[in-house]
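Write out the 3D structure for:
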Amino acid sequence: MTKNLNGEMDILLALFKNPDKELSASGLAQLVGLSRMGALLVVRKLVAEGLLKVRKIGKSSIYSLDPSDSHTRKYLIFLLSREAERATPYARRWIAELRRLKNAKAAILFGSVLRKENGARDIDAVLITDEKRFDALEKEIDAMNRINSKPIHAVYQLSGDFRKNLQKKDSVILNALKGIVAFGEEVVLHESSGE
């Protein structure tokens, strides 16, 4: 039961974090480490529950999230929050630091800090804000960088820019989406869904 539930969570997160890919059950199996049959059983269940949409291309079935479904949105918000809580202690240290920001609507920790941890030279973070708070957010980051052991390399995105850059398949933003949402899960989901 737990393995199946973890498979469901992993598949939903994989689909959310890879909006640039058209994923079949086989592709999802490779991404999340399930057998092809295991992934197929999970996606069929998720389709039946209304959490996924399926589109046929020839004999292949391509799966995607249904961001208009309120249950899908709530479940993804839960999964993104859970992912941050279960991050490594080193990543959680930087998640806590990003959560101190008062002028960002959302923050995503990504890049080498998640792979190399203490070996990373800097801390990559996408920060979503609005025009009114942009200057204040830059000042907050400058102040943090004066006292932190590693500088935060901020990728600033105004509301709407994140969505546009995802649609343009901007490699930095696509890479960031594979990271960990420090806070603002609803904002990231909204920006990612194109609504």
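The mean pLDDT is 92.
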